[in-house]
Design goal:
Layout lengths: L1 E5 L4 H13 L4 E5 L11 H4 L9 E3 L5 E3 L1 H9 L9 H32 L6 H21 L13 H13 L8 H11 L18
Helix pairs in contact: 1-3, 1-6, 4-5, 4-6
Bound molecules: glutathione.
């Protein structure tokens, strides 16, 4: 398998890398510079792999290119302990994968990207406030859900936890409030077999 990811440590690519490591899968990596002009993700060679011009993309051994971190994780986790077997458990994993993509990542990932690399220069104060409020709302929903629970679905570690962990682990550093349940859950994820840290930032701008 071949993973396309970025030279900057992308949380979306981290989800896939963390799962690949926990599964003990072998894979090669191509790193693309998303800050280049034009970004390497928007050049014809890569658009032929993913017309949506975004990493991560996992190219399977038969040559099929699979983009979207949630779809890649769902594919890799099938038949493993990282995806529940029950119909409801699988649907609840999808529930949190969709939550992450619609109500969490668009705020917290963007806030992280602006904080460390892109700056907030071309965004209004109102826009910045909206990112902060909506990101915090997502973390607060996670905090309430985790009351009395160790993990998000069926109280066992799954790709729902990986999806939510990838950017939540940066939340406190970039100024979001992280309360007791989420904080304890972050540590629990880090104790899982095969857990690997997010890649270091080659530009040195992100301290995580
Ligand atoms: N929904 C996608 C989002 C992927 C995404 O936003 N990737 C960013 C890096 S984290 C990217 O490729 N940016 C470069 C570009 O847009 O050209 C996923 O979960 O995989």
């Amino acid at each position: 398998m071949h993973l396309y990811e970025s030279t900057l440590p992308s949380g979306n690519a981290y989800k896939v890398r963390l799962l690949l490591e926990q599964l003990g899968k072998k894979y090669d990596t191509t790193f693309l510079d998303i800050m280049a002009d034009p970004p390497e993700t928007r050049r014809p060679e890569f658009l032929a792999v993913n017309p949506n011009g975004r990493i991560p993309v996992l190219v399977l051994d038969d040559g099929t290119a699979l983009p979207e971190s949630a779809a890649i994780m769902f594919y890799l986790a099938e038949g493993t302990k990282y995806l529940p077997e029950s119909r409801l458990g699988r649907a609840q994993v999808l529930q949190w994968l969709f939550f992450e993509q619609y109500s969490h990542e668009p705020y917290i990932a963007v806030y992280k990207f602006c904080t460390f690399w892109a700056g907030f220069g071309d965004r209004s104060e109102e826009d910045k406030k909206k990112l902060k409020e909506r990101g915090q709302a997502a973390i607060d929903i996670m905090e309430r859900h985790l009351t009395g629970k160790r993990f998000f679905v069926e109280d066992r570690y799954s790709i729902a936890d990986i999806a939510l962990y990838a950017y939540t682990m940066a939340a406190e550093t970039i100024g979001f409030r992280v309360d007791e349940n989420v904080s304890a859950w972050l540590k629990r994820v880090e104790e899982q077999d095969g857990w690997v840290k997010v890649r270091n930032d080659p530009t040195g701008k992100c301290p995580l």
